[in-house]
Amino acid sequence: MNRSVWPRPLSLHLVSLMMAFTAVARADGPEPATNSISDLTVDVHSTLVKSFFGLGIQWDPYSYPPRPEAWRLTLHRLDFAKPAFFRVMTGANSYCQGFDAAGEPRYVWTEGEAAIRKRLGSLLNILDYAQTNNIDVLLGEWSPPGRLGSGANENVAHPDDPRWARLVTDFVNWLRTNRGYSVVRFYNLMNEPNGSWMWPGGKVDYHAWSAGIRGLRKQFDAHGLADLPIVGPDNSWNWEWADRVSLDLPEAIGDWEMHWYATDRDVLSGAIEKVLAAKRKVIQANDPHAAAKRFFLAESGLLDGKCNGDQQPRVKTFPYGVMMADYAAQVAQAGWMGLCAWDMDDAMHPVSGHPPVPTDTTLKLWGFWNTQGTAMGHPDDENIRPWFYTWSMMSRLFPRDTRIVGVSPTGLSNLRVIAGETSGRQQLNIMLVNDSDETRTVRLVVPGLVRKTVRLFHYFENDRPTDADGFALPEATLPDKDLSAGLKLVLTGRGCAFVATE
Question: pTM for this structure?
Answer without folding.
Answer: 0.92
